[in-house]
Amino acid sequence: MNSKIHIFTYFTILIILIFTQKLNAQFESEIECFSILAGKNATIDNSVMIAHNEDDWGDLLINWYKVPEQNYSKGTKIKLQNGAEIDQSLHTYSYLWVEMPGMQFSDSYMNEWGLTIASDQCKSREDKPIIDKGGIGFYLRRIMIERAKTAREAVKLAGELIEKLGYNYSGRTYCIADPNEAWMMAVVKGKHWVAQRVPHDHIAIIPNHYTIGEIDLTDTINFLGSKDIYDYAIQRKWYDPNSKKTFNFKKAYADQSTLKAIWNTPRFMTAINMLAETKVHYGEDFPFSFTPKNKVSKKDIIKVLASHLENTDFESCNGKNPHDNIASRICSPGNQYGFVTQLRNNLPKEIAYVMWTSIKRPCTQAFIPWYFGIEKIPSEFTYENWKSAVKKHFSRVDLKKKTQDKAYWKYKELADLTDKDYYNLSLKQINEKNKIEKELFNNQESFERKYLRFYTKNKHKANLFLQQYQSKIINLSLDNTINTLKEIKKAVSKK
Questions:
Q1: Is 449 a member of any domain?
Q2: What is the pLDDT of residues 198-215, one digit of tens each?
Q3: Number of domains present in the structure of the chain
């Protein structure tokens, strides 16, 4: 196709979408989360990777907690957010918890088996849900992480809870991975759900709409779901079995306006085309998963999470801030944190599971490793303790006022200031980010080898070494942020 015609076509589409969806701008800005799942044969190091940008709005806070394993007495109950009660497990696993106080669906988890969970809002068309005793929502991923060893086990556990209580939010896709396989679990308000396994040699992308299409619940290796997922769609007239069309979950159950939305399609397409062997084009029905052009590394995935749709026909911006556009970016204005995991099954759990995390801005903040084996979270990155965090998660308090000494606010202040003149203020930050990441990537193997030498002789000494290394890296990130913020404030004040 002639390049001028090609560009004209895309901008025509953009103009149409801008006019038809301008009224939804506030709604769009609230659903910009983004995830990537990569099977173990699709990655360079044969780790399963789950990557996620968490996008929310307002003065929020990010906490880190290392929750130890727990034992409970028989008969102990968990009281869910809206009043329902379920039995507590007699034993719960240890996990790393990234918490955003007050938020319903923004927390991420990684447990002692490498099971990792994040999620993306996906609105459904369900308007007659069956929900018992207030249903379940916020607690669903927490229960999975406390009780499941594998992604498949987590999906089955969540499915049982949803069918028993009903899901109390419009819709969501849970991205669930362990060191051997990755799943996407699409949940509909009420008692319907379906899950699909990502093939070992594939990558799957999800913006904020369901991506599971054709399903086969007789193939229990690759699919799980509600037994009446077809029949209910027929009953609601979302699927006509006489149409000779194959049943397609997302076309039946999704809020149809999300499937081609300006806050979904451009970033979905961009991410696929950055990684896939076969390119996709605007207007196509994108695949659930695909074969990458090359096996991917964490660096490749980080590049996607940091993207503002550069080198595409949706790159246009206001000249100052590439995050702020009608066509939502992967690295968006509401981003709170981004992460990429390495989930490996050939190392001790303390170093086998790594959550490479960027606070606030994946495009300018370095992704630093948070190893599962970390035992003590630096005080600047945690508020109170994990037990009080559970009880107070939905407390109505002025978090910014109560936690102004916490590190997150430095990262946020730097991001907000940079966005005012991004192209002039970000270049040095991006160079520093690349320098730090390169050094950390290069040092990872030698650090892990040294840890293993300690581990074979003295596990306690190995874990002290890990804690020291982890604290050093976290402080490096924070010091770099504080120093950069001082430099920019000084430079801005001189203008």
A1: no
A2: 999 999 999 999 999 999
A3: 1
